[in-house]
Amino acid sequence: MATYPNFTQYLIEKFDLSESNVYLIHELIKEKYISSEGFLLKPGEICKHTFFVESGLLRLYSLSENGKEHIIQFAAENWLLSDRDSVFFREPSKFYIEAIENSLLIPLDEYLIKKIEELSSNFRKNNEILLHNHIRHLNQRINLLLSASAKIRYLEFIKLYPDLQFRVPQWMVASYLGITPESLSRVRRDLANKS
Amino acid sequence: MATYPNFTQYLIEKFDLSESNVYLIHELIKEKYISSEGFLLKPGEICKHTFFVESGLLRLYSLSENGKEHIIQFAAENWLLSDRDSVFFREPSKFYIEAIENSLLIPLDEYLIKKIEELSSNFRKNNEILLHNHIRHLNQRINLLLSASAKIRYLEFIKLYPDLQFRVPQWMVASYLGITPESLSRVRRDLANKS
DNA sequence: TTTATTTCTTACCATAGATCAAGAGAGATT
DNA sequence: AATCTCTCTTGATCTATGGTAAGAAATAAA
Q1: Which stretch is the leader sequence (chains A, B) (predicted)?
Q2: Residues 14-43 of B with CB under 8 A from A
């Protein structure tokens, strides 16, 4: 009798489902477990669906020609994760999705989504909100990249994801910020000295 | 008898509307004209709806504390333009929308959207595609900002918007790319020298 | 515990792009 | 034609961040 406390909570809160309806959905779940450093997606593959992160932590990143990784997104418990383009347009992904910690994922596949849609009155509305939140988030990131120094971007990062900095190695934070690990190290030293 | 050739084309192509249905929608249009250097939106205002650009050219930009402009998006004929966050979440915008050329806009207000939805079978699908295209575009921009030099970003810009570079002053291109006008000038000189 | 491996820090130098200042064109305006 | 204003260019310098290399610290493996 598997339980998915986070996903259950998510269904109840966002989709206003009753307990009994939640169980109907539980039955459809084909959970996916990925151990640390395992991959959920690699370039060239089509990302089949979006995943709900029940537990653990993953990252979505690209690899540029010169061999450098650029982290697009982290996803910890209660987050949704996918290469949206690949899922929606059914095209090969350009990205990697790799587990940073052992992670338990719930694939939001066709059947599961249909069921939620069937049981929830505000399914569509929620999806729209999700997409718009995503866009808002991307816009903020672009704004930061256009206008802010490495130091400010780092401060914004820890403001936005206070716990993440303790769960991922520093070089991944640097990669997310678009700077080298050495630079991040220096930024942190300067910040420590000033206070 | 106003005609909107671009918008008409757009309705027919994207929403599969018949000519007679197009006329039903024409009747609802409250066109908005903005002359060059006029503003469609300023920070603090709520962006009421998305606009279809029938003709002209505009830019959406933010102003950072240190007084620098950062262009988020250009929009020429046949483009949609809005501060999506502000429209969707009904919250005050942080952005300016300013006309670069005299521009004729078609506000996609509540009534107009309802009418299109009523008359078009694939309205929802189209909206979804629009949102996903937007996300894809933002992701590509983030990737570029994270990984590419000013020169490469400039080359990508003229590849993506071949005509735009001739319609906007160079300093606006620089602002879009996240570099200074001086730097862009030098990038262009270097490119010219090499070929 | 000892040895590897990975991550982080630091120092030194290199480079891209920013800043400042001056001038050159190109339209506008008078 | 003369003056303004705006845009673009160029040179000289400055600064933030990158690159390289070495060592320290932490973590995992033996």
Answers
A1: none
A2: none
Distance CA B144, CA A62 (A): 11
Test the B interface: residue of A81, A85, A142 with most B CBs within 10 Å: A142
Output DSSP code: residue A164: G
Instruction: For residue A170, say whether its CB is under 7 Å from any atom of strand D.
Output: no
**Which residue of chain B comes nearest to A132, CA vs CA?**
B85
CA B54 to chain centre: 11
- B157 to chain A, closest Cα gap in Å: 15
Is-contact A11 A22, C-beta < 8 A? yes
> Which strands make up the sheet holding A96-99, listed edge to edge?
A39-41, A96-99, A57-63, A69-76
The residues of chain B scoring below 70 in pLDDT are 1-2, 195
Other beta carbons less than 10 A from residue B185's beta carbon: 13
B140-151 core/surface letters (b: 16 or more CB in 10 A; e: else)? ebbbbbbbeebb
Nearest one of B148, B146, B191, B155 to B173, comparing CA atoms: B155
- Predicted structure pTM score: 0.93
Whether the predicted pLDDT of A1 surpasses 80: no
Q: What is the pLDDT of residues A103-152, one digit of tens each?
A: 999 999 999 999 999 999 999 999 999 999 999 999 999 999 999 999 99
B144: which residues sit within 8 A by CB, 6+ positions away? B152, B153, B156
The two tokens of residue B16 are 């599969």
Do A29 and A81 meet the contact criterion of CB atoms below 8 Å apart? no
Of A70, A135, A138, the CB nearest to B146: A70
